[in-house]
Amino acid sequence: MSEKNQNGYENHPIQLRALKVLELSIKVIPEHSQLEPNVEKFSLFHGHSEYDPKDKTIAVRIGVEIGQEVKEVPFELRIEILGVFEVDEDKFPLKFVHKWAEKNAPLILYPYLREHVFSLSSRAGFGGTLLPLFQVPTFSHSSITTR
Q: Where in this chain does the entry annotate a coiled-coil region (predicted)?
């Protein structure tokens, strides 16, 4: 039988154990500073390390760039964060850990990335830029194995 946490929910076998900021940068373009940021034009990127069986961890990075693809923007922004996830090897099949890091982990880290975009753009005087929320399907072990 699965162990439940104090709220009665079952914990996922992979847990975020550390979150680090790798890069926070914003460059205001003075001649365009009165323009509204265009959040329809942004680039997301992500990647992950190899699984470390000694520490039972895998590191996943996610980042965003805003303003590099548009000519008249109020700012150029780049943020990159790193999450370190610990895997319960007794409850999660290791053959799927890289697929999980590629598909699921960026979705777990995305709210932290959104907060940094909002906070940094707000501190630069732009009222806080919000990245959109995504509608994503629910993943399970069976959906990971078939992809």
A: none
- Name the burial class of residue 27, with classes exposed (0-12), middle (13-18) and buried (19+) by CB atoms within 10 angstroms of its CB: exposed
Please list the alpha-helical segments (H only) found in 1-147.
Answer: 97-103, 105-123, 141-145
Please state the pTM of the whole predicted model: 0.85
pLDDT (tens digit per residue) in 78-119? 999 999 999 999 999 999 999 999 999 999 999 999 999 999
Using alpha carbons only, give the angle 119, 134, 95 rounded to the nearest 5 degrees. 105
Total length of the chain: 147
Structure tokens at 14: 């992979």
Strands annotated E in the chain: 14-28, 42-48, 57-66, 75-87
